[in-house]
Design goal:
Strand order of the largest sheet: 10-9-11-12-14-13-19
Structural class: alpha/beta
Strand content: 15-25%
Shape: elongated
Distance between the termini: 85 Å
Number of strands: 21
Helix content: 40-55%
Bound molecules: thiamine diphosphate
Low-confidence stretches: none
Number of helices: 26
Length: 662
Amino acid sequence: MLYDRKALTNEELIQLYHHLLLPRMIEEKMLVLLRQGKISKWFSGIGQEAISVGVMQALQHDEWVMPLHRNLGVFTGREMPLSKLFMQWQGSKDGYSKGRERSFHFGSAAHHICGMISHLGPQLSIANGAALAHKLRKENKVALAFTGDGGTSEGDFHEALNVAAVWDLPVIFVIENNGYGLSTPTNEQYRCDSLVDKAKGYGIEGIKIDGNNILTVLDTIRGIRNYCIENQKPYLIECITFRMRGHEEASGTKYVPPHLFDEWKKKDPVENFEFFLLGTGVLDEATIAQKKAGIKKYIEEELAIGFNADEIVPDIEEEVADVYMSPTLNRQLLTVDRKQSTVDKRFIDGIKEGLHQSMEQHENLILMGQDIAAYGGAFKITEGFVQQFGKDRVRNTPLCESAIVGTCLGLSLEGFKTVMEMQFGDFVTVGFNQIINNLAKIYYRWGQHADVVIRMPCGGGVGAGPFHSQTNEAWFVHTPGLKVVYPSTPGDAKGLLIAAINDPNPVMFFEHKALYRSISGAVPEAYYEIEIGKARTVQHGADITIITYGAGVHWAMDCALKHPDIAMEILDLRTLLPLDYEAIRAAVAATGKVLILHEDNLTGGIGGEISAWISEHCFELLDAPVIRCASLDTPIPFNIVLEQQYMAKSRLDAVVRKLMSY
Ligand SMILES: Cc1ncc(C[n+]2csc(CCOP(=O)(O)OP(=O)(O)O)c2C)c(N)n1
């Protein structure tokens, strides 16, 4: 292997050798421990170390790195205490994830390392967000994300590179091409000659290098880092390497032709570098032996600390409490006198005002969405925003929902807030993984919050067919770590949106499109919050209780007007996660006859959950079975007559009568 030391001093070369040796020796020790049954499996990076190590030595300590499952060198490169790393791998409480995450699936904000989720590709666009933060603040920094050759086949790879290219982000994408994705060889993974050829397709620069040569990796990444900062552009690097062990320890390597191991053994990144250092006289055999003995001792000492860590004592309260970051409640915003100085506004204008005032309040708030800048968004909610707040903060996005959610998360790592507008809530499916697995779980997994609001224009009644009409809140209510808000009045929409933006946790904010321009109400002019998790009694009544939210509130009110002989207690939930159980109990107690109404289809809808809770906790208060009125268990049809039949609203009167006659 040819090494070009360029201007590196002997001292720097020796340091580099140390960094290269450390992950190798840790893994060799882990192999022994695995055979002794003392640790659980992990994904070996033996043979690929030069990439992680070279990358880490080329970056500044406060530049974000998004590693994957084979990147031990990333963690050792930031000099994380080894004992704590061992505790992490042991699943100890004092590791980096309180025993909640496996092997390398964790991060540490203090070390600017963002933990991966198993799905691989989502890491890439988080780097975009961190890079965007640097760009917006005009900092001379990059962010860097890793992917394997297998990961490049994921849509997330395409989306991340595309967004980075279109937005000129200083981000480095590193492909570790080690020949296999589990057992799949590269010729079954992609058709281009080299993965780096893909750079051209995104309009960015790329280079393919020998990933086993530590000096090549270091020098290339240093150069590319400068390029990205100076030119404010992304860069793709394909590092050619080989995985010397199985996909994970215990899975074997039967599918790899043995001659490949022989060939790549000759290219071993550690042994070759050692040979080079010996040949150039930078190190001699004795010093190398001494160095290895020193590292061995260090590993043994740290391992002893790691193995002595206390056993986890499961504590339900702590587990549940760690799902959400505690918001710092601003009492003043909650107690603003909302009766004073109100203006009658449409639902859409309440949302617009909440967003607008939030943009004025938070300089670090960024809006993202398709066509939200000059065009003003599909529903014109952000009309005029780009003129006032500028293109940096009101960002038109390419059609890359997954990458944009990831970018929002990356911005959050750097202290920004984001509101992303899904053009239609239906399109959330293509950003689903980032929401469900990254935004929702990150705080519980390693203590990093995701300060992101996703606006979800939703709902039917406008003859828009199956993909522009869904109200899919139930998908998210099932996911711990998210908050789900669903206002029904203009005043609530404003106050709840402001609260969602101030909340450090990820919030799914549902806005019923049919309410946008059809309803109006008093909207306080002040900047105020409606507390997330607090329901509202719309009206009191003694005959039956309707528990609902969103458009359902208006259906219930219309129904009450139509039936003046029935005294209806109506509860507007306003937030679906967390639910306001106290208010639900009080609403049940008011009548003993409960109807849960929602536009979402029946099976698996939130109505089932609330109904179950009522029968478990309020059984004695009931005078009738809890009844649900929901939409049909079909997709939402386009034809207006079919749609009316689909809608829960068309059955509400009948269900009310049924409950009354019980
Ligand atoms: C979305 C998704 N599909 C499948 C898997 C299962 N899986 C884990 S790693 C892996 C192979 C990844 O190959 P590559 O990206 O080349 O990285 P390598 O493991 O070779 O470092 C697969 C298929 C996964 N984790 N996520």
